[in-house]
Write a structure and sequence with these properties.
- The protein is an alpha+beta fold.
- The protein has two domains: 77 residues, Trypsin-like serine proteases (Thrombin, subunit H); 90 residues, Thrombin, subunit H (Beta Barrel), CATH 2.40.10.
- Helix content is 25%, strand content 33%.
- It has a six-stranded antiparallel beta barrel. A six-stranded antiparallel β-barrel has the order 7-8-9-12-11-10.
- Strand 1 and strand 2 form a beta hairpin.
Length: 229
């Protein structure tokens, strides 16, 4: 009888501890956690060999077979591109297409043996100043880093979102996310008068609708063709 009582008490205590541990997260924290756990497997680190060294950035997996969206300045004029996925696997990537310096978007392709998790795009026309946003990137090589902030301004002339979410070198090409985990922008650059010494909270992202239009214009035969051996 005593053993049964002790067992019952143990179950009750463990149940109470489990409930309490779940209640330790505030609703806003739980949003951050959920978005990160949902999206981080679809984000990659990119290293491109260029004439003056290595260009590092971030990418978003857009198809299960390994098509990746990034910033064109990350891979522009590169001779070799390597992609590291969330689980630590590294692949050689081939260049597919780019959208020029003004739009600053590019597509690269890897050949995974299994299907990969992908991002989903939200409608950037619905974005509002003051809206909470999250970013995932690889600042200074610190992979899969989550930051948060708000949309600080919308530049309708240059078609860019301004945000105070921390964006640093290595984050270019990473996602700017809404609270449901949809990509609403692609991290591009920061206002950085001291030449990458510090982040002063002024970052810029390309609206996701530009990325969606770009992906739709790319020749599908170029994407599906076998890589050169």
């Amino acid at each position: 009888m005593k053993k049964q009582i002790l067992t019952a008490l143990t179950i009750i205590i463990l149940g109470a501890l489990s409930v309490n541990s779940q209640q330790n997260y505030a609703p806003d924290e739980q949003i951050n956690i959920s978005v990160y756990e949902k999206i981080s497997p679809a984000i990659v680190a990119i290293e491109a060999q260029v004439s003056d060294g290595v260009s590092a950035g971030t990418g978003c997996i857009v198809t299960p077979d390994g098509l990746i969206l990034t910033g064109s300045h990350v891979v522009d004029k590169s001779t070799r591109i390597e992609v590291t996925t969330n689980n630590g696997q590294t692949y050689k990537a081939r260049f597919i297409a780019q959208m020029g310096k003004n739009k600053d978007l590019a597509l690269i392709k890897i050949e995974p043996k299994t299907n990969l998790q992908t991002v989903s795009f939200g409608d950037s026309e619905e974005v509002k100043v003051g809206q909470k946003v999250l970013t995932i990137g690889n600042p200074f090589g610190f992979s899969n880093t989550l930051t948060q902030g708000i949309i600080s301004r919308i530049d309708y002339v240059k078609n860019r979102f301004q945000t105070d979410a921390a964006i640093n070198p290595g984050c270019s090409g990473g996602p700017l996310l809404n609270s449901t985990g949809e990509v609403i922008g692609i991290s591009q650059s920061i206002y950085n008068p001291d030449r990458n010494i510090s982040n002063i909270g002024i970052g810029f992202a390309i609206p996701s609708n530009e990325a969606v239009k770009f992906i739709a214009t790319v020749d599908k035969n170029k994407i599906t063709s076998n890589p050169k051996k």
